[in-house]
Amino acid sequence: MTLFSAVELAPRDPILGLNEAFGADTRPDKVNLGVGVYYDANGHVPLLRAVREAEKARLEAQLPRGYLPIDGIALYDAAVQKLLFGAASPLLAERRVVTAQALGGTGALKIGADFLHRLNPSVPVAISNPSWENHRALFEGAGFQVVEYPYYDAATHGVDVEAMLGGLAKLPKGAIVVLHACCHNPTGVDLGTEDWKRVIESVREHGLVPFLDIAYQGFGDGIEADAIAVRLFAEARVPFFVASSFSKSFSLYGERVGALSIVTDSHDEAVRVQSQLKRVIRTNYSNPPTHGAAVVAAVLNHDDLRATWEAELGEMRERIRTMRRGLTQRLAAHGDFGFIEAQRGMFSYSGLSSAQVDRLRAEFGIYAVGTGRICVAALNDGNLDRVAEAIARVI
Ligand code: PMP
């Protein structure tokens, strides 16, 4: 017997397992559509010009490396708030929003989950069916019971809004509802403005606690348009949480740049909530890392750099849309794949079955997640024809 004799091998992360299998595949024309990052037209993770310029200035300034405040860089937190709620938001003028820099969107969800668990550990957390696979694990890890609300409708390749509202109505008062604010991962299908209004009505009627996850702002229809859910919740005067991330929109994955924002009912509430959120952070990792947030703050608070970033984000968004259109067109002879073009963000629920995904891998060296999720941002002019032909062969 040793201390670790009883430790069982944890199940392999299915997506990381896919990446390992892809790495080991020796076929030269293999394609990995299983990834969760944006690749440029040459198949690389981009280093944005705005980021490069901000980094150069930072390097030249040769700054000391003291600790950041527990809730991060104040200028960063303020920039996040403007991006999410709009610079003219009354919420910001009334100082009702608490924002803390976090370790990516994941870190934001985690400190939000820990905060909520201290507030009320006995309520369930409801996530969409399906959802980003880490949502369940993360909230269960924080001590919550996790349930699902209906979301995706495979028959229509859309959201089953009625079923979703029915699911929300069954949740107990105080239940936490995790909502993808835009570019739903893994399906690529989002709620429309009118749907959001109905969801907000339901949240209010049933006393639910909305926790918005916005990891792809700017990848759907644009920075402002993608914030529509956040803006509608802000108008509704309900308390809510927002986990946001710059991993994708700044291509800063490994720098872990995100934020948690909590919307409260008054500045007095905000002060108290902030003090408790800081305790959660302090006992998790004390304070966040500097580099990524300093770069993002410099870009967002500097007119020229910001314009460069917005243009680069626009290029990424347009490239994804071009790939969506290209795939839809190439598959048109084999059925109506217009839903791929209509979906938003990096991912698409392609409708491929797990058997078809297996064939893509075995016969063509094309890797996708077993659920049929493909990363459209991994397509480019060099692999689009091949991918479309292979899909046409397996369907
Ligand atoms: N939420 C969703 C829906 C995501 O897809 C992701 C990342 N793939 C995250 C949160 C976490 O992002 P980050 O890398 O910033 O932790």
UniProtKB/TrEMBL annotation:
Cofactor list: pyridoxal 5'-phosphate
InterPro entries linked to this entry: Aminotransferase_I/II_large, Asp_trans, NHTrfase_class1_PyrdxlP-BS, PyrdxlP-dep_Trfase, PyrdxlP-dep_Trfase_major, PyrdxlP-dep_Trfase_small
Keyword Transferase belongs to the record: yes
Domain Aminotransferase class I/classII large: start-end pairs: 29-391
GO CC annotation, single: cytosol
Gene3D superfamilies (alphabetical): Aspartate Aminotransferase, domain 1, Type I PLP-dependent aspartate aminotransferase-like (Major domain)
UniProt similarity note: Belongs to the class-I pyridoxal-phosphate-dependent aminotransferase family.
Pfam families assigned: Aminotran_1_2 (PF00155)
Subunit structure: Homodimer.
GO BP terms: L-phenylalanine biosynthetic process from chorismate via phenylpyruvate
Origin species: Luteibacter rhizovicinus DSM 16549
The keyword Metal-binding is annotated on this UniProt entry: no
NCBIfam families: PRK09257.1
Top EC class, one word: transferase
UniProt keywords, alphabetically: Aminotransferase, Pyridoxal phosphate, Transferase
Name this protein carries in UniProt: Aminotransferase
GO MF terms, alphabetically ordered: identical protein binding; L-tyrosine-2-oxoglutarate transaminase activity; pyridoxal phosphate binding
EC number: 2.6.1.-
